[in-house]
Amino acid sequence: MKTAQKNPPAHSVHSVHKTPTNPPDILAPVREMIQACIQCGTCTGSCPNAFAMDISPRGMWRMVIMGEDESITEELFNTKTFSLCSSCYTCTLRCPRGLPLTDAIQALKRIQTRHYPEKAKKNIHFYASFLESVRRHGRVRETEFMTLFFLSMKNPFLPFSFAPLAIRLMAKGKVKPGFPSAGNGALDPIFQKARELEASS
Hints:
Blueprint lengths: L27 H7 L7 H5 L10 H9 L4 H7 L13 H5 L6 H15 L5 H17 L4 H12 L4 H14 L16 H13 L1
Helix pairs in contact: 1-6, 7-8
């Protein structure tokens, strides 16, 4: 004779609540690149732009290593440190552990663009305006480049913050006044191919 089936206990699989999955660790690829960092500070001592950074390169790598905490990640992408990198590769050449620090900084820029686009807005428009001037003329035309940048930012007060620098550069003959032009489009096929490769990667 079959006995009545008992109700499943409270701890059975039917009553266990699913916990939300943890957010992806967006810094994991960069952490893998610099996990052998010994925090010696050679990168900071070698960086020509460290004086203008709010967090030193050494401090930035420490944040990447410890960056599984969301608050640390937020703080990291609020810094302007990696956006000031000029890709001179001095830190990479001098790193005693041979770490690809410049490549890691470029990876941070890509992560910021993908996951924190509002924080990367100025950098995105800056680089896009630079490339657009190169696409049109085969070289950057500084006055056109900055005009495109100001227009893309849609901030009428932004040009005034650059005015003192522009006046000094013009006085020394470093830049010349000019207006944007369409160019001859000779580099269009190269840029189109680059866009196709980016889309497929």
